[in-house]
Amino acid sequence: MTKISGFSKLTKIEKIEWVCKYYLQNQKNAKSILEQYWNDNNKLQKLHDEFAENTVSNYYLPFGLAPNFTIDDKVYCIPMAIEESSVVAAASKAAKFWGNKGGFKTEVINTTKVGQVHFTCKTDYKTLQDVFENHKSQFFEEAKSITKNMEKRGGGIRDIAIIDKTSDLDNYYQLHCHFETVDAMGANFINSCLEQFGKTLEKIAHDLEVEVLMCILSNYVPECLVRAEVSCAIDELGTNGDEAKNFARRFKQAVDIANVEPFRAVTHNKGIMNGIDAVVLATGNDFRAVEAGVHAYAAKDGHYKSLTHVDIDSNNFKFWIEVPIAVGTVGGLTSLHPLVKIALSILGNPSAKQLMRIVAVAGLAQNFGAVNSLVTDGIQKGHMKMHLLNILNQFDASGKEKAEAIEYFKTHSATHNAVVDFINRIRS
Ligand code: MEV
Hints:
The protein has helices at 12-23, 27-36, 42-49, 87-99, 125-134, 136-142, 144-152, 187-204, 241-260, 262-282, 287-298, 338-346, 352-375, 379-394, 399-408, 416-427; strands spanning 63-71, 74-81, 105-108, 113-121, 156-164, 172-180, 210-218, 225-233, 308-313, 316-324. It is an alpha+beta fold.
């Protein structure tokens, strides 16, 4: 393995040749794969190249659609970018199931985002606090050139508070700030405001031995919260009363377990994120930010819990999710990436609030699908069926072989070994 200096200065072809020469076995094949996924449209390819550094190809994922979602009485077809089999199918199935039971109901609880200036100060808190309170308006004024446009759209800085953190760390204080960023995810806006706050702070507190360390948004956004819910009469959950009651009871028990048992909760929430991430990614949003914020929220009570909840009263079944989702529908990739633009168009060019609702619904639907399978047939039945094609493709199965395998595995369990045995058998 070889090191190089000045890699970023190489042309794309030179970068590819370098990585093929020093890191890849079958150089010819590797080069042709990397080149195959360049876009023929030079302008578009240049755009992709400018999203990130040192690009040598385009990485692709399946882009699927889950139709028939009724959300707040409006029908949506939800685009999902995901490689995992069963996810889009489970979402579509849940959409259909709940579509004729009133659909999904949602509520955006709040949209507040958070950013912090982390700093140290050697002077006592009382003096620092007085200086801050006396100059608070200066923070807003000196950030005016940054906030002007956001304010025109109804957003801006909502609040700046000073917080004494010295019981956690010597001399440590924060400016803890709240923002409204309307339809933008708002990372650049928030970080620019915070850097300005840092400068203002250093100015007003110059003789208090203040040292600004970091100015950065927080991806923990417990107040940027959305709720999505489905409900129906218990009888509607099965083909007869006993089956329906049994399903409701087992479903609730499964969710209750995820509420008290972290090992199960992590997997339970991972299934929710299958839906959430796929929509976040398809709509050009930062799925790492959403993941980080969601998992922190799941642990907000001191132990990691389920993001979904079930309530059963006399004859009613209610299933809901409450999650922090900080997403945008303007800025970033939203007007640049061709598939992101299509995804947003399919969703009717939603506002950020609408997208929050859609994302939460995708998470709830996914969890319904997963827990439904787990407490009835088990996960492998549906999973392996979808996975069958992946295994067959690994063996370069022909159309005829695939058809035979699909027929055979209708009545046999499609484990990996069973599929491999089957392929070997029909080939020998
Ligand atoms: C797999 O990607 C997701 C599940 O494990 C979720 C769950 O167990 O609830 C099926």
